[in-house]
Design goal:
- The chain has 508 residues and is mainly α.
- It is built from 18 helices and seven strands.
Length: 508
């Protein structure tokens, strides 16, 4: 039930039965990839008899002043489709992408880990995740939400979530499911950093604790604010700023999760890789991908699903969704080409793995800018991200000697930083960007300038690096302490599949 519907319902009951009018208490909570917000369900209480006339009068005035939230079936259909194809990114997309990159003896292991992290992620999101990410956190509101919607309390087929446009909404259950997939894929991305030596039990513990300590607070800090309806009144400016998550309050932009998903998972993967140590034989023996066909199929599914990831983050089926869609085409194309050309020039041959890795790097880089950059700006982001991520995955990793098995930090961490900082530039309308919506000025596009916006983006990146680094270290230490962390050298040598799961992917 929306805020206005709850109050109208209370007034109607007061008129019909001559009883006490119902007062609505509603906490508006905002959220979604970059500029999205969740709305609390209305809680209706009967007023004291002596306050009855006053309450009715207040309800009438508020109903008259506040617009109704409208739900469009086209928006709902688009969000349902987007949610499904984001799930496609994880299973089978990410599972096959990672599966092809590991050695054949560890195929079942990585597939099982992606699957269990997704399943646990969905359950945890329903129990506490959605509430911690997308409700008011009281005294801790800058950092994390509360538990008012734990177990989806108050969320049903009548509750709505406001979208980017004033007065436009979608069913809250759709928003819950859409954001659920984000929580799942972020934790699953981390697995690539510790692949081929981590215990399955360690991953189970990690997938329960890490979202609570790191992901849910990060989602709250980036995407929680007062929403367009509240922000459209200049008188609410201070309240909107005071009630927003920490990174949102900086003015940092993140349309679909450059900080929340990619930098966050990249840092967690790096911390896990360093804490667990390198694979046996790392840098001494070759460890090539066992099936590039699977990897390319997986990268293709990731690319398709990423359209839902980015364009779906708009929450409406309109021109901004179209902008995010085309940007999700051109940025990975540019990154695939620039990665390939750099590799061709430096190593003498253009590799298929390089093309696939470059495309993913471009998808990562454009994620925070998807609904802000113009297509040319998105292309430039991709072209820049390709060589930088290639450097991170080769020279940087070699110099620092850490074993990030599937280059999660090199692609998602570094690519996420490039995209987050670059968003502050490509959002500029002078460069073809869409600008930042000023709701108080009637929805016009504004831009504070390159320096202020880039500083805001950089502050968001620094908070993400610190929060994910410290939080991930705590979680990995706990998970390793409870389970041992990594398999024995004998198991690692023979392959994790049979020792951990009693089955193998291939039978010769």
């Amino acid at each position: 039930m929306t805020k206005n519907q709850g109050k109208l319902h209370g007034l109607w009951r007061a008129v019909r039965i001559g009883g006490a009018a119902l007062a609505a208490t509603l906490a508006l909570g905002l959220a979604a990839p970059d500029m999205v917000w969740a709305q609390e369900a209305a809680t209706v209480e009967a007023p004291a008899p002596e306050a009855e006339a006053v309450v009715v009068e207040e309800v009438v005035e508020e109903v008259a002043a506040a617009p109704e939230l409208a739900v469009d079936k086209g928006d709902v259909a688009w969000m349902l489709i987007s949610t499904v194809i984001v799930l496609l990114m994880i299973i089978p997309g990410l599972a096959l992408f990672y599966g092809g990159l590991v050695r054949a003896k560890n195929m079942v292991s990585i597939l099982s880990q992606v699957f269990v992290v997704t399943a646990i992620g969905m359950v945890m999101w329903l129990l506490v995740g959605y509430s911690l990410a997308f409700t008011d956190g009281g005294g801790l509101n800058r950092f994390v939400g509360g538990l008012s919607k734990a177990f989806l309390t108050g969320v049903d087929t009548s509750t709505l979530v406001e979208t980017f446009s004033v007065g436009v909404a979608i069913p809250e259950l759709v928003f819950v499911a859409f954001q659920m997939t984000f929580a799942c894929i972020t934790a699953a991305l981390v697995l690539g950093g510790v692949a081929e030596r981590v215990k399955f039990s360690t991953i189970v513990v990690f997938s329960i604790l890490w979202p609570v300590v790191v992901y849910y607070p990060m989602a709250h800090m980036v995407w929680w604010w007062g929403g367009p309806l509240m922000a459209s009144d200049p008188a609410n400016a201070e309240a909107v700023a005071a009630g927003a998550g920490l990174i949102w309050s900086f003015g940092a932009l993140d349309f679909a999760g450059g900080t929340v998903v990619h930098i966050n998972s990249g840092v967690a993967a790096l911390v896990g890789a360093i804490l667990l140590g390198a694979r046996t034989g790392y840098r001494k023996e070759p460890m090539p991908p066992h099936n590039l066909t699977f990897t390319v199929i997986g990268s293709g599914l990731l690319w398709v699903g990423w359209v839902g990831f980015n364009a779906g983050s708009n929450l409406e089926s309109n021109a901004y969704a179209a902008l995010a869609l085309i940007n999700t085409f051109v940025a990975p194309a540019g990154a695939a080409l620039s990665w390939m050309l750099t590799e061709w020039l430096t190593k003498g041959k253009p590799s298929l793995l390089g093309l696939a890795s470059g495309a993913v790097a471009g998808l990562v880089a454009v994620t925070p800018a998807a609904g802000f950059a113009g297509p040319v700006g998105a292309l430039i982001l991709g072209l820049v991200a390709g060589p930088i991520c290639l450097f991170a995955c080769s020279a940087l990793k070699s110099w620092l000697k850490y074993d990030d098995s599937l280059d999660v930090f090199g692609i998602h961490g570094i690519g996420g930083i490039v995209g987050a900082i670059g968003t502050g530039i490509v959002v500029n309308p002078a460069f073809g960007g869409a600008g930042i919506v000023d709701y108080a000025a009637g929805g016009v596009a504004i831009y504070p300038g390159i320096v202020p916006q880039v500083i805001a983006q950089a502050k968001g990146v620094l908070v993400t690096l610190a929060w994910s680094g410290i939080g991930s270290l705590i979680v990995w230490v706990i998970a390793r302490g409870l389970t041992g962390g990594r398999v024995s050298k004998e198991t690692e040598s023979e392959g994790v599949d049979y020792a951990e799961h009693g089955e193998v992917a291939y039978h010769s």
